[in-house]
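Thread: quick sanity check before group meeting

JM: Hey all, I'm pulling together slides for Thursday and realized we never actually wrote out the predicted structure for the chain we discussed last week. Dropping the sequence here so it's in one place. If anyone has concerns about the input, flag it before I start.
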Amino acid sequence: MAHGAEARTWYGTMPVQFRYTPGTAGLRFFETLKKKGTLAATRCAECGKTYLPPRVYCENCFADLEGSWIEVEPRGLVHTFTLVHLDREGRRLRQPEIAAFVRIDGTDGGLVTRLLNVRPEDVRIDLPVEGVLLPPRQRKGVLDDIAGFAPIGSGAPPRRPRAR
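JM (edit): ok, ran it. Output follows.
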């Protein structure tokens, strides 16, 4: 296709049905988060890589990781961040939110999350943060069980997570 010359447009609606399943690794990740408040990861004994989100095989050496589960605390360092000024419908937020990728301690991976209890002018790369989890009875085994990450030792109670 040269510069979209063969692109076509479909007008109207297309009924699409799907069911998202997290797979065996994702299911274990979410069950561990719900029940224990920790993050499930997999570690490759062959090459030493620790996957979060977990994998069932190593993407480097293709080793089977089924029996190599570990649990890590939801703590890490801000790797990168951005300020979000508009909501999903394009309306301006009263206060900007901070979206960040947090590298989780003890792993080679991380999570995209919201930062809580930190002002935009105070956020920085390598800021130590910890997960703010919903109370155990409110957890459903979904990523929203993590309300966000807050600076370690911030001392302030976490903001209530917004309904999504």
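AS: nice. Residues 23-151 form a domain with the OB fold (Dihydrolipoamide Acetyltransferase, E2P) fold (CATH 2.40.50.140). The chain has one domain: 23-151.
JM: adding both to the slides.
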